[in-house]
Amino acid sequence: MAPTSSTLAAPLQPDIEYHPNEEKWRVRTARRLAEDPLLPTTPLPRGFPQKLESPLVWKGSDWMDESQWVYELNESQLKEIDDAVKYFNALNQPLGYVSPTTFPLPTLSPILSELSKELHTGRGFFVLRTIPVSSYSKKDAILIYTGLSSHVGSLRGVQDHNNAIISHIKDLRNSHPEKTIGSPAYTTDKQVYHTDIGDIIALFAFETAHEGGTSRISSSWQVYNDLAASRPDLIQTLAEPWPLDGLGGTPAYSMRPLLFYEDSKIIIQYVRRLFTGFHGISRSTNIPPITEAQAEALDAIHFYAEKVALGLNFQKGDIQFINNLSIFHGRDAFVDTPEKTRHLLRLWLRNEELAWKIPTELQPTWDRVFYKTSLVEQQFPVEPEMLLMKGAKYA
After folding, report:
1. With contact defined as beta carbons under 8 Å apart, do 382 and 145 qualify?
2. Which of 105, 140, 142, 249 lies 20 to 30 Å (CA to CA) from residue 295?
3. 193 and 271 together in one domain
4. Checking phi first, is residue 279 left (phi over 0); if not, alpha (psi -120 to 50) or beta?
5. pLDDT tens string 268-313
6. Are strands 167-170 and 310-312 parallel, antiparallel or unpaired?
7. How deeply is 6 buried, as exposed, middle or buried, from its count of CB atoms within 10 A (0-12, 13-18, 19+)?
8. What is the dihedral of CA 63, 64, 67, 70, to 10 degrees?
9. pTM for the whole thing?
């Protein structure tokens, strides 16, 4: 008797976790290639380039000294920033109204504008060094961060359902139950290579860790080139729809590709935990599992990115800006002490004059994040809190 749909076993989630296991990846790769030796001859998706040529294609070894990406603020510019703090505070307006106009930087603004061009058409990253954090209140330090960032990307994205604009990246396990922590951002764990939401990601170092916590970035355009040359079948897999976990939201999951080719630009948008779960929040069981091909592709992204990554030496007061559409980011695990507790602030930004065209499948997310909240509704929490975000709506 032929098997029926009721007698066929349902597909199972592959043996894969948030933290990539290189041995499992190599075993899975060897098994899949043994089953189908022609996988490396798979054509790229229609229209996708064989190789990207751009300053956005780079390896960590290409950068020999941090002076190549660090812009150090001088005393005159720090005075200009301090004057802008006083100017904005005198306006007596909510922080949502911070803009290049309300946070004026006469000589620094043109420099930040040029650095924003570097994000979009150059190497895709830079570090602004260094804000004297300890000289300001937390509120004014956030004002400085928001004000400087407005000259790089004036649109700020909301990061949760309560219209929080600022996210605190800090170990919160002492203040929140383990079962509620579903992101490595709120632990001391290593973060694997991933992207956030938005065109530009800004990270402000309120404080660095006692040990570890190195910020690492990797050109997703370089990773694309390496995959296209060696495993074009995984490019095909990444360009097909994937089931993104809604993490308890509605809908329970959404379907979209992780890789896009839009307006002659490659864009990879993904967070690994939506396919594997993390820590206290496991992957939902009532949604489709990923495939073995997708499991291999997830690990390939991480290990290919790791091979060509660059470590950035975060110092207290630094602001790191990256092009989220062309760069993966991650971090090393770290150790805190009462005297040195790693604490970063995060902004999602968009510069409408320089912005890339966003793929149709991502546009609803960009609309929710950047265009649905009024300036007066924007919230800037001063103290660390865990953001309330459901994966299917913000993925």
Report:
1. no
2. 249
3. no
4. left
5. 999 999 999 887 778 998 899 999 999 999 999 999 999 999 999 8
6. unpaired
7. exposed
8. 30
9. 0.94
